[in-house]
Fold:
Amino acid sequence: MNTNVSHQDEKIKFDQIIQKDVPLAPFTTIKTGGIAKYFCSPGLFEELIAALEFANINKLKIYVIGAGSNLLISDKPIEGLVIRTSKLCRYSIRGNIFSCRSGLSLDRAINITQNDGMLGLEGLGGIPGSIGGAIYGNAGAYGYTISDRLLYVDYITYDGKSHRMDRGGEDFSYRDSPFKHMEKVIIFEAGFILDKNKYSTFAKQVKDNNTKNRITKGLLAYPSAGSIFKNPKNNIAGKLIEASGSKDITVNDAIICPSHANYIMNKGHATSSDIYKLSQICKENVKAKFDIDLEYEVQLLGDFS
Ligand SMILES: Cc1cc2nc3c(=O)[nH]c(=O)nc-3n(C[C@H](O)[C@H](O)[C@H](O)COP(=O)(O)OP(=O)(O)OC[C@H]3O[C@@H](n4cnc5c(N)ncnc54)[C@H](O)[C@@H]3O)c2cc1C
Structure:
């Protein structure tokens, strides 16, 4: 299998890369969550492989986080190894192919490619995620999704083996990717096929406007994890939540965004448990009023029982 990952002979010592009892709230956009018993933020392929080896030897459950912008992490300790990808951010450009590691942020990827005169990613501007997290959930906005320009994904299974998935026609759909249905994989690198020498002020405006729109709509007024629920078929989750009479409900510092009822925000000292309770109330109210089951878009990590 042809992949872009490389190997190095030098042995990495576990205590150089694994930290213990690390608070996770700062690594999420909603600023809630407990501690990780073990934590690693690898910058190199070899460090990632060593982290997987550490988890395998110690029989630890593995959790992967990117920019933490679509995550609700339990307040209870995460009894396993949390791997954060943010230092895996190398990239390269060959012709009209942009390749990057999964921890690179979407906004950086857009800036890098635009500065090189490439177009195609600008519609994702303002989504505060990493490449890996965006591929995992097929993030998108304003009619664009990350899978539109995707050429390949290199991923690593928890046994340390590398694999390549070439982008197939129907593998991605609304907030869904093949990786959501595969167990024990880390997206390591992705390639995108972009338009070369097509840079335009229009494309730059698309990106800037996306960010401005989120500010104008008040979506950045307080920390959040983006949309809590997926839109049901032919419906809009926020509108259902509003019409179910849930909009003014609060649970401690967990509030519903006044301009977008599908955003739950942390007004200051909310916990993940507060956010989760409020989301459950919205879910129950929508079910009671419209007989519609809202499905979480946000990814729940850890124990919420
Ligand atoms: C203010 C705001 C606005 C937002 N607007 C949008 C929007 O317009 N459109 C949209 O689609 N989303 C939006 N989001 C949600 C979020 O930014 C996206 O879903 C983003 O793509 C998540 O990426 P992440 O790196 O933050 O993933 P994380 O939140 O860190 O993780 C999300 C999931 O992806 C998995 N994951 C992350 N990286 C990897 C990897 N390398 N390999 C395997 N699995 C991985 C995690 O295990 C987890 O299950 C918004 C969020 C906020 C806070």
About this structure: Residues 29, 64-71, 85, 102, 127-130, 132-134, 136-137, 139-141, 179, 186-187, 214, 219-220, 224-226, 299 surround flavin-adenine dinucleotide (CB under 6 Å). DSSP finds seven helices and 18 strands in the chain. The chain has a mean pLDDT of 92. The CA atoms of residues 55 and 233 lie 39 Å apart.
